Amino acid sequence: xxxxxxxPLPPALPWSGKSEALxxxxxxxxxTPAEAAGFRTTPRYAAVRAWLDRLATASPLVRIETFGRTxxxxxxxxxxxxxxxxxxxxxxxxxxIHAGEIDGKDAGLMLLRDIALRGKDSLLDKVDLxxxxxYNIDGHEAMSAYNFVHLRGxxxxxxxxxxxxxxxxxxxxxxxxxxxxxxxxxxxxxxPILYVDCHVSEGFDMQYDITFTYAGWGRYARHRATADWLxxxxxxAVMAALKEAGHQPIIYPSPIDTRRPEAxxxxxxxxxxxxxxxxxxxxxxxxxxxxHMLKPYRQRILGTYVLIxxxxxxxxxxxxxxxxxxxxxxxxRPATLLTRWxxxxxxxxxxxxxxxxxxxxxxSPASGRLEQRWLGxxxxxxxxxxxxxxxxxxxxxxxxxxxxxxTEVIDRLRLHGIAFxxxxxxxxxxxxxxxxxxxxxxxxxxxxxxxxARFAHSRSRETLAPGSVRVPADQPLGLLAAAMLxxxxxxxxxxxxxxxxxxxxxxxxxAFVLAALGERLLATDPQLKAxxxxxLSAEPAFAADPDARxxxxxxxxxxxxxxxxxxxxxxxxxxxxxxxxxx
Length: 583
Known about the structure:
alpha/beta; Aminopeptidase; 4-stranded antiparallel sheet
């Protein structure tokens, strides 16, 4: 084990289970590369593709397809397992969105073999399986022993981000990466009844090996019908299968503070930047698998195999239930969008016998502070579950209006399948318009410069140019549109920095002209004069900056500055929303 792990890891807890019987014997002609290596290594992309091509040649149940190309030009591949016949619902399973967390790839290869050649083809009686073995292929091929050093195997692992250093599991909504765009197109084409995204955790040591969760940990899902199916049907079925196979599952315990496990685990809403959040916003039951990092690779792969098999069985049994849940969610028309929240002051629940691992602290010469040393000794303790309470909710408008110049936004709407109409002649409307207050550009993240701001809403009469796009909220993807178009949303195009022109300074002119203009404004507009004097009093640096004073007055002079601090997307609001555009 030491040869696998460049960073010394805590002791592994002993384990054995029924799922060990799933491993092919040495010399088996259909042994997978990971099995053949004793689960010490994981195969590269070319070996995975060659193995799958050989399996597809040997079995009529498996077909290999491409569905996109990566940033570095590699084919994105999927394996479709089907008995054919009439179109059946699809279970979509993906591995390696974070390419070092690759358990799902090797588990999926084992399960595909057993479906195609070893008698488990009944799993395909009522559903098809579409398996993406490596989502982030470019990151996968940048293997190193020093990627994901917190994972106990395999010996070398890929990176978390793609070739542009974009984390694909932060990219679903903004869709900057070619891999993301290919996956969104695949999801739209398949419209799966279940979407499973395989990861490996970070955090603290514990006895649980296979963990999983859903959007908002189920409790905070935006669409209830699919969330209720996941919590009420999927979770119990998969938990039972994992326990029967000798594994120790739990709903993913996301730690509040890894240095103090007893501080609790976090349940929180999610946005559509994540796979689970995106699935929730578009009405597809989506599962996040988070195997425990410190369990041996062999154990994690076997648990993932059991989970995927149980997922296929649950989806087949409940195909009609899931279809009905999806239909209910897509028929719903939420009137509001939760945009901000904070930890609740009291736990929303407890796990009375959380199965943890003991640790001690020591003074580290490397960090110069106290660090944890996990001891490999099982302990149990009472674990609080920390929920969230809303702090900001916005009321959705009747529609959003996107200018034809915002081609990036219109492209994303089209990619996601959000319905809109395009006008071919000017239209004049009363709109809720938004100005930014005190915007701040944040550190670069995921290929963008995100911004934060406060917002001022006001009504104005606007003439919309031909080519402008109206995006109605009354549609199945209305909530996804809201998450991307409402300025307060944490996953909005605005928050991701799609409109840098808003932050540019307004045009300037000669000081003697601006001074005369400013003097006239102050002499003729008492309200503006009062605001100006208040700003002078409150902001000494502003008061001492003549150019800033003149620029501020010029910006207030009239409608000649359409870009600075103005959100370019208008909100078409009904009478009720006009009374409370944002709360």
